Amino acid sequence: MNNISTISPPQLRAYSRSQLSLIRKTIAKDCNNEEFDLFIEICKHQGLDPFKKQIYAFVFKKIRKTKDDATGQWTEVTDRTLTPVTSIDGYRAKAARQRDYRPSDSEPDFEIDKDAIDPKRNPHGIVKCRVVVYQFGPDRQWYPIVGVARWEEMAPIVEGGDWVNNKFQGNGEFTLDPKKPNWRKMDFIMLAKCAEANALRKGWPEEFSGLYISEEIDRMSSDQSATEAAEQFEADERIKRIAGPSAIPMVLNFTDGIQLMPAGQVVDKV
After folding, report:
1. Using the 8-state DSSP alphabet, how is residue 118 labeled?
2. How far is the C-alpha of 215 from the C-alpha of 58, rounded, in Å?
3. How far apart are CA 91 and CA 201, in angstroms?
4. Is residue 86 predicted with pLDDT exceeding 80?
5. What are phi and psi of 63, to 5 degrees?
6. Which is more confidently placed, 117 or 80?
7. I need a surface site. Which of 2, 12, 110, 239 has the fewest CB within 10 A?
């Protein structure tokens, strides 16, 4: 390619009244008035088309109790969070507009561990997926941008149990969320999408900041807000960095830095 340059953003699309009505009744049916207005503006400014299934409107709800200081009575309040979710096709369309993006010509690279196979939580023992995309640099060379997604961080694993008196009581048995069957039927594809999204955000942060694909938020439960899910993810990351309950931080190779190693593998690795 002889001439690589960033093109101007797409023109804001104007929707007709009938189109707005259709979006409201289908793609954004969970939105209230303010959320729907915001979602349409996001679609316009991001240049993503909900009719092409490039972007969706997810509304997360959480019920909390609040106490009235005057009366002392407790009431339930529902907090709502609109989360625009982009499909992987929407990600690719935005990347292609930049004119300095090239997809990889090789398939995603998966790390498999037979010891990680769990019929309920990880049928194929997938550890992580690595996807490479390419970005054209100012020196007119293509540079690889690597995105990695780990199964333990992305797979929607939930605890079984029952609701008793409006409270969930878990039974300690964890499995892939049955409401998201694609993670069992197409587990390789689902994790590869997450890795590709990470690569695109790394290479084009201005374009993809704040946009997530549906596979990345499948782990969010219906009663958890996007903010809480993000805070939980950051807490999990901190725990992993300082060592989990069954992991030991070690430095075996200075080029790799600190690694968390399962206690049962320390002797073999050393």
Report:
1. B
2. 12
3. 9
4. yes
5. -95, 130
6. 117
7. 2
Quickly count: other Cβ atoms within 10 Å of residue 203's Cβ: 21
Strand order across the 212-213 sheet: 55-67, 74-86, 212-213
| 268: nearest Cα among 112, 111, 115 | 115
- Please check the confidence at residue 84 and state whether its pLDDT lies above 60: yes
- Which residues make Cβ contacts (< 8 Å) with residue 28, sequence separation at least 6? 35, 36, 39, 50, 57
Q: Judge whether 28 and 39 are in contact, CB under 8 Å.
A: yes
pLDDT in tens, 136-173: 999 999 999 999 999 999 999 988 877 666 676 777 88
pLDDT at 246 over 60: no
Q: Quote the pLDDT of residue 245.
A: 46
Rg (CA), the chain: 22
Give the CA distances from residue 102 to residues 15, 89, 108, in Å, rounded to whole numbers and listed in that order: 31, 14, 15
Please spell the DSSP secondary structure of 201-227, one letter per residue: HHH-HHHHTT-EEGGGSTTS-TTS-HH
What was the pLDDT predicted at 77?
Answer: 78
What percent of the chain is helix, strand and coil (3-state, nearest 5)? 35, 30, 35
Contact 214, 85 (CB under 8 A): yes
Q: How far apart are CA 79 and CA 63, in angstroms?
A: 6
Element (DSSP H or E) covering residue 14: none
The contacts found for 155-161 with CB under 8 angstroms, 24 or more apart, are 155/121, 155/122, 155/183, 155/187, 155/191, 155/219, 156/180, 156/183, 156/218, 156/219, 157/121, 157/219, 158/221
pLDDT over 60 (residue 259):
no
Report the alpha-carbon distance of residue 159 to residue 137 in Å, rounded.
46
